[in-house]
Design a protein that fits this description.
Blueprint: H1 16-25, H2 31-67, H3 71-85, E1 93-97, H4 98-103, E2 115-120, E3 123-128, E4 131-133, E5 140-142, H5 148-165, E6 169-171, H6 176-182, H7 194-207, E7 209-215, E8 220-225, E9 228-231, E10 250-253, H8 255-263, E11 265-269, H9 270-275, H10 280-295, E12 300-303, H11 304-311, H12 318-335, E13 341-344, E14 347-350, H13 363-374
Antiparallel strand pairs: 1-11, 2-3, 3-7, 4-5, 6-10, 7-8, 9-10, 12-14, 13-14
Helix pairs in contact: 1-2, 5-7, 10-12, 11-12
Region (Disordered): 48-68
Organism: Methylobacterium symbioticum
Protein name: Plasmid encoded RepA protein
Length: 375
């Protein structure tokens, strides 16, 4: 309401509708009661306006400070604000096989290598590069090993669809271009464009085979599988972004891999994954912390040697790794400031935290999910 000159003797009532209300009651038996109500309404409105003005000032200040940040820092700050103010909805939660989360793919392209091995504790992962048939030439062409953040995001998306649809044969609804945009990347063509980069990783994932080793201290099992039994895809790497290439309409996971995925699916908030979509190691750190927090009951301490074996295999030295890893942890805690994770000269300490500090389901939820998967 627009303010008007205050009533004579009542300069605390200014809004036109309240002034009119009091004037109408003047001289009546209800005048004093009307005046009291009008004053209370005016005070409440003034407080609301002051609060809104303060919030607007704070938003302007935040926007100004954010505009000065580098692109990735700006993205992390935006996502932190969203996560703090909007609880994770079911559509925000995606899933990844926990062994892939713990052991991870190569960070960079392993030049000339056709196999890759990584272990973490009682879990091991071995990946072998495979071949796809070129639909133009008919040749079986070696695809190389999947690597980097884009392969991780693709696996996260495909594993999520399998868990969500509760079927090894999944319908993939949108285009590759739409997926790339959803992850926060521009859709660009050419030799260095994002379309080529994502297509290459999808081809490599479609062709590779994996060995997943699990050991519980008394029993061991090894799963020898390609992740996908059928993925009708050969995405030409030189296509134009305006072509709007679709994924294969259906993708079929190998049955053993799918069954194992249901038992070992790690929930991940996709909003957080977007914050680190440009860094393979930061994604691995996000996945790893999520896995550890969902099971952590006492403080976890890891030395720098432990951390180097887990996250630094592709750094030239532990010294350079320590410098880079400190930055990675700082970025993670930017998005999750309540996360009780610290680094010192001896290594890392991770303390049990409230589950919402990294948006992972409580242990009871995980247990129920495993029970449903076994049923």
């Amino acid at each position: 309401m627009m303010p008007v000159p205050p009533l004579d003797g009542f300069d605390d009532i200014r809004d036109s509708d309240l002034v009119a209300l009091v004037e109408k009651a003047r001289g009546s038996i209800a005048y004093n009661a009307t005046l009291t109500v009008a004053r209370a309404d005016q005070a409440r409105r003034d407080a609301d306006r002051a609060q809104a003005a303060a919030a607007e000032t704070e938003r302007d200040k935040t926007a100004g400070a954010r505009a000065k940040l580098a692109r990735n820092a700006r993205r992390r700050d935006l996502i932190r604000e969203v996560i703090e103010n909007e609880p994770a909805a079911p559509e925000n939660i995606q899933h990844l096989h926990s062994v892939l989360a713990l052991c991870g793919l190569p960070y960079r392209e392993p030049k000339g290598a056709t196999n890759f091995f990584r272990e973490y504790g009682r879990n091991t992962l071995a990946i072998n590069a495979g071949r796809l048939t070129n639909p133009i030439s008919g040749d079986m062409e070696l695809q190389g090993l999947p690597y980097g953040p884009k392969a991780r995001l693709l696996l996260l998306h495909l594993c999520t669809e399998a868990v969500k649809q509760r079927s090894p044969k999944i319908e993939v609804a949108h285009s590759l271009s739409g997926f790339i945009r959803d992850m926060g990347f521009p859709v660009t063509g050419g030799d260095r464009g994002t379309l080529k980069q994502f297509k290459e990783q999808l081809n490599r994932l479609a062709a590779c085979s994996m060995q997943i080793g699990l050991w519980d201290g008394s029993r061991a099992s090894t799963l020898n599988v390609p992740p996908f039994r059928q993925l009708d895809v050969w995405l030409p790497l030189n296509a134009h972004p305006d072509q709007g290439l679709l994924w294969s309409s259906t993708i079929t996971f190998q049955t053993d891999f799918f069954d194992n995925l249901l038992q070992h699916a790690l929930p991940v908030d996709i909003r957080a994954a977007r914050a680190f979509a440009g860094s393979a190691r930061q994604l691995d750190l996000l996945f790893w912390v999520g896995y550890r927090l969902s099971r952590l009951e006492r403080p976890l301490r890891l030395t720098w040697d432990n951390l180097y074996k887990q996250f630094g295999s592709e750094n030239g030295s532990i010294r350079s790794f320590r410098q880079e890893f400190r930055k990675d942890v700082a970025h993670l805690t930017e998005v999750f400031p309540r996360l009780r994770l610290t680094l010192d000269e001896n290594g890392m300490q991770l303390l049990p935290s409230d589950q919402k500090d990294l948006l992972v389901p409580p242990k009871a939820v995980l247990a129920n999910r495993r029970a449903r998967a076994k049923g």
